[in-house]
Amino acid sequence: MNSYKILYGLLARPIRAIFRIKVTGTENLPKDGKGYILCANHTSLLDVFIIEVSVDRQVKFMAKKELFSVPVVSSFIRACGAFPVNRGGADVESIKTTVRLLEKGDTVGIFPQGTRHCGKDPRETEVKHGVGLISYRAKCGIIPVFIKTKKRQVKFFRKTEIIIGKPIEYEELGFTDGGKNEYRDVSENIFRVICDLEESGGND
To answer: What is the pLDDT of residues 35-67, one digit of tens each?
Structure first.
């Protein structure tokens, strides 16, 4: 048994209970084994853990390199298959790693905002354009996910709803020949779809 399955077996139930996790839209998760980027809004350092225990597959997250220097967090995210990315600039190796994983059929998690925005309306935050670039290079679709909590803050014993939207297939993203403008437009369109999921969830 690999380290991911061991950690999942030990921690999934306690994490679900501590954050009172409710998952809606599980029927939207693709079953075909193709690689997808799972994209979600980002409110907390705990978002990675919450998503991992909310879906029926291992999600390999692109995580900022600073997290790999935090002992407990580093051990968990490595076991989950996370790999470091340098947020300060273009990280070519991380992009190549992500594309390889997607082409292999893995699910890779990326937060389009790039960093956490606790308590803020995600519609008012900046969206990075890496999701569009990676989707174009890997020719893969997107699984949109919204993390919904009261006051947009993840807290112990406060209800956390994970809303999974219908996958957006690569052919639906509107790419023609790539380029910065297309990466930007696609990334921003994806994030609008993610934010719109907030309205489809239950009440806080």
So the answer is: 999 999 999 989 988 999 999 899 998 777 787
> What are the tens digits of pLDDT across the range 4-16?
888 788 889 999 9
Q: How many CA atoms lie within 13 A of 161 on its CB side?
A: 17
pLDDT band at 195 (very low <50, low <70, confident <90, very high): very high
Single-letter residue type at 113: Q
Query: Model-level pTM?
Result: 0.90
Can you give the three-state secondary structure of the chain, one letter per residue? CCHHHHHHHHHHHHHHHHCCEEEECHHHCCCCCCCEEEEECCCCCCHHHHHHCCCCCCEEEEEEHHHHHCHHHHHHHHHCCCEEECCCCCCHHHHHHHHHHHHHCCEEEECCCCCCCCCCCHHHCCCCCHHHHHHHHHCCEEEEEEEEEHHHCCCCCCCEEEEECCCECHHHCCCCCCCHHHHHHHHHHHHHHHHHHHHHCCCC
Decide: 136 and 129 in contact? Cβ < 8 Å.
Answer: no
**Do the beta carbons of residue 132 and residue 82 sit within 8 Å?**
no
